[in-house]
Amino acid sequence: MTIRAIAVAGLAFLAACETAPDYGPASREGAKGYSEQRIETGRYRIRYQERSGARLSEAMDKALLRAAELTRKNGASWFQVVSRDSEKEETGGRSGVGFGVGTGGRIGGSGFGALSLSTGTGSRSGAPVAILEIVIGTGEKPEGPDVYDADEVYASLSSAK
Known about the structure:
- This protein has a 5-stranded antiparallel β-sheet. Strands 4-5 form a two-stranded antiparallel sheet.
- It is 26% helix and 40% strand.
- It is globular, with a radius of gyration of 22 Å.
- It contains 3 helices and 7 strands; from the N terminus they run αββαβββββα.
- The two termini are 40 Å apart.
- By secondary structure, it is of the alpha+beta class.
- Helix 2 packs across helix 3.
């Protein structure tokens, strides 16, 4: 295998590692994505953690999108946000991938830097987290600034995910 082929393979591997779905469930606690908790019938807490460096408004939009999805999934037509909160999640543990190609120490020599994966104990600065508590309902949508039509929210925000 030539050095060029190895370099291309390494870059493809790096691209695959860096690509994460933009919207979806969190794979574990503290990971990017949504999670929800049923509090009681028709009442849920939704948490959406964005990637580090993202704006809080992005996390809030995705939490609203999840609220719309959850409302529709339960056969309801509207939801009311009864509580909003936000935080910066301090995520620990940096991970990295390295790949190097170089020349040897003698004239005409060549060398290859191996692919390496590492996990450290450093910390990354906060990823924005949006937390919503919602009540879902059917029938005529009540009036109010915190009451949303689930179909309209879904149509508006699902194209932005």
